[in-house]
Amino acid sequence: MSNPIDYFEFFSTLNYFFLLCSQRRVSSKNTLLEFAFFTFSIYRLYTNPAPPFVTITSSRAKASLNQQEYRPSLCWELHPQCPTQATLQRRLMAVSGKENSTYIVLSSRLILDHAEPPPQGGGYYQQPPPQQHHQQPPYGGPPPHAHYNTYQQPQQGYGQPPPGPPPGQYGAPPPQPYGAPAHSPPPGTYGAAPPPSPSYYPLGPPPAGYGAPPPHGYGQPPGPPPQQSYGAVPPTPTAYTPQPYAVQYPPTPPSPGYGPAMNIPWNPDPDADRLRKAMKGWGTDEKELIRVLADKDPFQINMLRDAFQRRHRRDLIADIKSETSSWFEEGLVMLARGPLLNDVHMLFNAMDGAGTNEDILNDILLRRSNADLKAIKAEFSRVCHRPLEEMVRGELSMKTERHFMIVLGATRAEDSAPVVKADIDRDVDDLYNATEGKIGTDEMRVCSILSLRNDNQIRAISYEYRQKYARDLDTVIQKEFSGHMKDALLIQLRHGTDKYMLQARLLEDAMAGMGTKDRLLTSRLVRAHWDRNNMRNVRNAYEQRYKKKLAKRVQGETSGDYQRLLMAICGEPI
């Protein structure tokens, strides 16, 4: 051995890999054998007389040790002569005397995943030359009237003002509303030109009810995140994690109805009196109930419910239940509760008693902002007197349970987090290696990526996967997964690529086939209607995909007061 061994660094290496194994970051039937081979390979790489392709460093571990807080952390520094995984695998085979094996692949992959960049001038992280891809709009793109230019890798950094990427391309705002005139989106909708930002393509404010922004600055665009150049190397993690977007960005504000109560310039007393009059005495004026409740936004509903209690000393929801019945009653109660309280009641009912309504869990919990999930968990604990996570664990099992625990952790990338090319490429490769690129499927890696990325990042991942592997990620998930996990992953993917089309498809699923799934149909329409702009886009997406109006389809599946209620929720006059 020509080099003396720094035992602190060497044993930091061992402790680091042991940490990966103990946290189940490394999946294998024989983890001990992997551990032994990996240890041997690193030892030989570090002490081999030939110039190493990988240098072991542990500066962060030494710094933490000096502070009496030992957290072993290892990073590998790649040399410019080691640009690819294949080159590193050949070197591992040479120093270990073994033929190519899964352990060599594992070792080289771990090193490359956690290596620091080589010196300037070459190496694994060098920016590739610009490439022109074939014209291929990403899955779930905007309607056909939207023009797609040939995709080309951006040339400027994220620190430069964007030249306006084509719709649907990663880094661009979400697709413009369905039915909007091409190249002239209405103000305040997706697709409108965003204000220039020094470091990323920003999203506009989340749509507010009835097209008017609430007071107190609710939903203002977040400030720019820390600057990072396009293609820049992401920070080196201290241990493998499926979440490379660790930098903190401005949080996504809660949706209307999920944040603190807001005082809006609206008097609920007249409508509270109309509701009482419609239910007082003999008979019930069902049409009046529909007219009053179907057009209120979340803030108005909360104020109306309080005003009804204050003026008439009665509970609005209890009165509705006593005066109506069947699915008409269910729909009115969903409206009267407001979005947050209704989510809590539906979650509890979906898990209470025998069996679990998995569709309800998917509808309410998946692709929600961190702020909304935290509000749902807090309200569930207040109303049901038990943690939501505990109840979900009792209803799900194995990897599906772990999938939903990731979701309920509320650590998804905020909407303000930018799309970074290096991170997207890594996610694309990880998804391929977890599905098509191996025998079997690494379910948890796929679940982690799709649960922890924001919509812009999901859209970029879907687009790049198609460009690189000539297959839709949607198709891959349908082939590799089954059951509840498949349904959940498809919702997470499709929400990222086109959330309006996803809602349109879910509404059709509730009406297709023999019989109507009334609970799903009603809850999905009510959830979509809380934001009028969202409801309009869902209607247009539905018409584009199914060549018929959503209201007409709903009308054919329902009848009576229940039909009139759902038609009003869809925006049709009573």
UniProtKB/TrEMBL annotation:
The keyword Calcium applies. PROSITE patterns: ANNEXIN_1 (PS00223), ANNEXIN_2 (PS51897). GO terms for cellular component: cytoplasm; nucleus; plasma membrane; vesicle membrane. Signal peptide: none annotated. Residues 115-253 are annotated as: Disordered. Keywords: Annexin, Calcium, Calcium/phospholipid-binding, Repeat. Residues 228-246 have a biased composition (Low complexity). SUPFAM superfamilies: Annexin. It comes from the Eukaryota. This is Annexin. It comes from Neurospora crassa (strain ATCC 24698 / 74-OR23-1A / CBS 708.71 / DSM 1257 / FGSC 987). The lineage of its organism: Eukaryota, Fungi, Dikarya, Ascomycota, Pezizomycotina. The gene is anx14.
